[in-house]
Design brief:
- By secondary structure, this protein is α/β, with parallel strands linked by helices.
- It is built from seven helices and five strands, in the order βαβααβαβααβα.
- The chain is 46% helix and 17% strand.
- It has a five-stranded parallel sheet with strand order 2-3-1-4-5, with helices on both faces.
- The longest helix has 22 residues.
- 35% of the residues are buried.
């Protein structure tokens, strides 16, 4: 089994935290191992500077980023071999972005976990977050860009809220 799980959602929804917890759960499963990829690390310096200035990324800005993410997932899956779960923190806000990732990640079954969080919670998290280039000034543009995944239309979608445990999501993905 080679599985790619993309924790997705707007800034402040907890993608990285969720993905790291999921990786820890995977690593406790006999015969499985995880690789965590922080999508933010794969943004270009130009994109990071833009976001730090509160300038939203365009589709043209995001396209090479998705290619880097997909290539990193494929490389990790090849290097690590079978029984690998590659877990990525990546916004993947639009359906076409998710389709691009699905189509570009070969050799893995691709699943998305949509982290759905209320706006007021997002604002609080972003106001309290330190050392990250994406601040509260980008939140509205991300919410405007977001196309919530619909499981009846898109395949391999799990929606999680703050009330959903990572263990429950892991069970849905791995059992």
């Amino acid at each position: 089994m080679k599985l790619a799980v993309i924790a997705m959602g707007v800034s402040g929804c907890g993608k990285s935290t969720f993905a790291k917890k999921l990786a820890s759960i995977v690593d406790q499963r006999e015969g499985l191992r995880s690789v965590f990829i922080e999508g933010d690390d794969l943004h270009s310096d130009t994109s990071k500077r833009s976001m730090a200035q509160g300038i939203p990324l365009t589709d043209a800005d995001r396209e090479p980023w998705f290619k880097r993410i997909a290539a990193s997932v494929v490389e990790s899956a090849v290097v690590e071999g079978d029984n690998t779960v590659v877990i990525v923190a990546c916004s993947a806000l639009k359906r076409k972005y998710r389709d691009t990732l699905r189509d570009s990640i070969s050799g893995c079954e691709v699943h998305f976990v949509y982290l759905k969080v209320e706006r007021d919670v997002l604002v609080t998290r972003l106001q309290n977050r330190e050392g990250h280039f994406a601040g509260v000034s980008l939140l509205q543009s991300q919410l405007d860009t977001l196309e919530e995944p619909v499981p009846s239309i898109e395949r391999n979608i799990v929606t999680a809220t703050d009330a959903t445990s990572v263990d429950d999501v892991a069970a849905q993905l791995l059992d």
